């Protein structure tokens, strides 16, 4: 009997046979008590009674898939004699139950360096029906092409695997719409949120936004020489960057409040006569394990200031001159030098 059969439906049962005659062959029927079924008698054209099974309540195969009944036929003789037959009612399934997921939403964490083919999640749904009505196929619902190209699903097992590599810096999470459809066409949906975990796969990047070069050698301490942007697209400690200058350059690093900008300022007075330029290497390291490093080279030229007076080669020259030396004779040549350059270093005598 199908579980879709409405109450009141009748099902003819086998009639009993009694070889006696008269009252000894008059038969009445009895059915074991069951709230789902009752017994009625239908009179046949020949005057005999045909037992029929009547469905009293709607059936639900998922609650009870079969019933065991006993039909008894009793004659009217003395002594009474009876015969019995067992009736087994099997309830035929109706696709009245959709697939059911264990959760409406699943959450998975996946490292961004997971290789294509990696397992993401094995998802499953159950169906209380039987046979083809309980056979479930899995698939993705309507989603953006960007998501579909990253993941694939096995229609039979419900296994979701990675189809294409991930990039935390591009997309930090994906929401997958998963569908389970049974053989009768009923469907259920759930969502799978894939959270991409950051891996320290990016080195810090240093960009020189502005550079003041040459710098006058008489520039005061604290003068801004360069403005830099330091960026690491990773997250957490992988994206936390510390900077240092190599060498003995007369500069220091000052961090902006946001931390992404670095300012190079004069830490001590310059002296072009001591060093006409400074080659700097700025090294930025992130907090990953192992750490990744980025570098930038900066050349700062020192502009001369007239901070040096001419200096004679000797503080005093002594010359012995004969009194008859002709007018116009060279008595002595004095020399002076100036450590400055250009016009500041050109020396005139008087």
TrEMBL record:
One of its GO terms (biological process) is homophilic cell adhesion via plasma membrane adhesion molecules. The keyword RNA-binding does not apply. The keyword Cytoplasm does not apply. GO terms for cellular component: plasma membrane. Residues 16-101, 102-206, 207-312, 313-350 form the Cadherin domain. Transmembrane segments: none annotated. Its main location: membrane. InterPro entries: Cadherin-like_dom, Cadherin-like_sf, Cadherin_CS, Protocadherin/Cadherin-CA. Keywords: Calcium, Cell adhesion, Cell membrane, Glycoprotein, Membrane, Repeat, Signal, Transmembrane, Transmembrane helix. It is a single-pass type I membrane protein. Pfam families: Cadherin. It is found in: Cell membrane. PROSITE patterns: CADHERIN_1 (PS00232), CADHERIN_2 (PS50268). It comes from the Eukaryota. Gene3D superfamilies: Cadherins. GO terms for molecular function: calcium ion binding. PANTHER family: CADHERIN-87A (PTHR24028), PROTOCADHERIN GAMMA-B3-RELATED (PTHR24028:SF73). This is PCDGH protein. It comes from Sinosuthora webbiana.
